């Protein structure tokens, strides 16, 4: 199975992640991957091409697509586009699971001129408004962002939740959930010292079996995945705090700033100090513009 498990970290201060799709310039392909979050793509300009479990889904401006947890999918952005993406952790839907750790929503392309479902237009409008409010960050945006988010969750569980599923689908879901439960624990305890042997014992696996799970489904070994989590959170801290690189390294489970820099460069192609300088440069430019 040639696909990867994607690590998803919510935006600072939010229970979900929202951003513009990274393939906005076109000529971009996001290879096959999966995650335990519910993902919504809303195309505001341009178009995208999705493949979900071998099914093809063209997506145009004014349309959105719901990707369910554990669905293997890829995204082809051959042309320029502006696409808002929302990733909702599965635990947000506790109390609405059809089975243990399982919930599914009506997938496929929603909206468009041929849509006969009035909820589709409402869903698309909610996603676009949610992105605009969060991106503009006007006074009170944090309250409005959360308000729109819960309105979105309400619409999903009342209008799009599928209540009848086949046993085959549940078995497949349980198969991938075995790893996702472990990676969720790692994301919650990444600042601590985590060992493969300790996690294997905690979740009832042998060291060898757990190591094989990471290689087969996450496509990386345990240590790389753990450092990936720490590096991702460190990146967020660099963008959202004024802490030193050394402090950020220690706050995110690294022994030193040198260790962070090594893994950071491997993942992002730049050093943490470069990102920090670029952040300061953009802040200075914005301050200069505001004085004009």
From TrEMBL:
Matching InterPro entries: AraC-bd, Homeodomain-like_sf, HTH-like, HTH_AraC, RmlC-like_jellyroll
Ranges of residues in domain HTH araC/xylS-type: 180-278
Keyword flag DNA-binding: yes
UniProtKB keywords: DNA-binding, Transcription, Transcription regulation
Transmembrane region(s): none
UniProt source species: Blautia caecimuris
Record protein name field: AraC-like DNA-binding protein/quercetin dioxygenase-like cupin family protein
Superkingdom in the source lineage: Bacteria
Keyword match Nucleotidyltransferase: no
